[in-house]
Target: Stage V sporulation protein B
Amino acid sequence: MTKQTFIKGAMILLAAGILNRLLGFIPRIALPRIIGAEGVGLYQLGYPFLIVMITIITGGIPIAIAKWTAEAQSQGDTVRVKQIFRTALALTSSLAILFTGLSLLLASWITTHILTDSRVYYTFIVMTPMLLITAVSAVYRGYYQGKQNMVPTALSQTVETIFRIVFVLLFAKIMLPWGVEWAAAGAMLGVVVGELFGLFVLLIQFARDKKKEEIAAFGDSVSKPETAKPVLGRLLGLSVPVTLSKMVGSLSYLLESILTARSLALAGIATGIATAQYGALQGMIIPIVLLPTALTYSLSVSLIPSLSEAAAKGDRLTIHKRLHQSMRLSLVCGAPFVVIMALLAEPIVRILYHHADIAPMLQLMAPIAIFIYMQAPLQAALQALEKPGTALLNTFIGAAVKIILIVQLASNPSFGIYGALIAINVNTVLVTLLHYISVRRLTGFHMKLLDFIKVGAAMVIMGASLKWTLQIEWLTREWQNVLAACGAGALVYLLLMAITGIVNRDDLSRLPLIRRWLG
Model:
C-alpha cells in the first residue's frame, strides 16, 4: 500500500466520519421535540446493553479481518482471503443469531430487572435485529479495509446515517399516538432501517466487485488451503485482545446507565422522571458537548501516522512538535464552544429542544468539555506510540472512579441527576490528565503555559463581546439574536487568535480537510 493510497483512504473515511457526525446531530435536535425527554430516555436506555452485545459479537473482528486480509492479499493468496472472509462471517453471524435469540427470550427480565424501566421492552425488542445486521456489516467493512478500499465503508456509513435520520423521525412521529414507549420503539426501528440500508450498500458493492472479478480469483490457489479450525483459531487470537479492550468502555457505559437509574430511584425520584432526566443528559446535553469532537477527530486521524513515523525514526523533536500542534489546535478549536455553551446554555437548549429547565446541566458540563476535546489527540498519541494498554488502563481507572461517584452522588437527593453529571465530569478530567501524564513520561512532552494564558484571555474577551451583542436584541427572533451573538463572539475570538499568533499555517496543515487548500 503506497503512502498516497493510505492518505487517500484516510481522507475518505475522515470526510465520511465528520459528515456523519454532523448529520447525526439532526435527529438529536428533532427527536426530543417529538417524543420529549422521557421518550429520549427510553430510546437511550437500551443502547448500552446493545453496545455490549455488539462488542462481544464483533469486537476486534473487523481489525483482525483487515489485518489478515491485507497480509494475504499482499502475498497473492486469494484462497486464504476467501477463507478469512467466510470464517469471520460464519463466526459473527452465529454469535449474532445466538445473542438475538437470548435477548428476545430474556427481554422482559432484562428490561424490568437490569434496565429498571419496563417500558423499554418495546424498544429493546425492536433493536435486537441490529445485532445480526451490525455483525454482518462489520465483516464486510473489515474485509474492504483489508483490501485497501475505503469507499464502500464510507458510502455505507453515509447512506446508513441519512436513512436513519429520515426513518427515526418518521416512525417516532407515526407511533407517538400509541404512547411515549411506542414512539421510542419507533425511533429505534428507524435506526434498524438505517443499519439495513447501510448493509445493502455493502452487499451491492460486494456483488459488483465479485462480478468484475476484483474480489477473486477466489478459485485460484497459490497455497494449500488451511482448514477452518486454524483460520478460526488465528482469527480469534487476533480479535479477542481487541474485544477485551473495547469491553472496558462498553461495560462502563452499561453500568453507568444502570447505576444512574438505580441511584436516582434510591434518591426517591420516580421511574418516569428518572428516565426523562437520563434522556435529557445522554440524548440532549452530551450530544451538544460532543459536537466539536468532529474537529478533534480530524486531528487524531492526522496525528497517528505522523507520530508513528517520527517514533519509528526516534525523532523526538518531531514528536514534540506534532503533539504541541495537535494539543494547541484542540485547545483553540474547543475553547469558543466552551464559552458559547457556558454563557448561552439556556437559550441554546430552549431553541434546540424547547426545554430550558435542562440548561444547568449544560452549564455544569461546559467548562469540562475542553478536557474532552484535548483527550482525543492524547489517546491517539498513545496508540501511535504503541501504548494502547496504557490508554486502556487510564480509561479503566476513570471508569471505576465514575461508577463509584455515580452510586455515591446520584443516590443522594441533594444531587440527583447532577451527581451523575459530576461523576462524568470527574471521569473526563481524570482520564485526560492520566493520558497527559502517560504521554509526558513517554516523550517528555509538556504543554506551554503561555498557550493557556492566551486562549484563556481570548475566551474572556469573546464572552464579553458575545453577551454584549446578545443584549442588544436588534433582531426579532431569539435564535437570530443567539446566532448573531455567536458569530460576533467567534469573529472576535478568531481575530485574537490571529493577533496572538497562537495558530499558524503549519498548524492548520495538520487538519487533513484544510491541508489540501493550503497546498
Q: What stands out?
A: The chain has a mean pLDDT of 84. Residues 45-246 form one domain. Residues 31 and 169 are 6 Å apart (CA to CA).
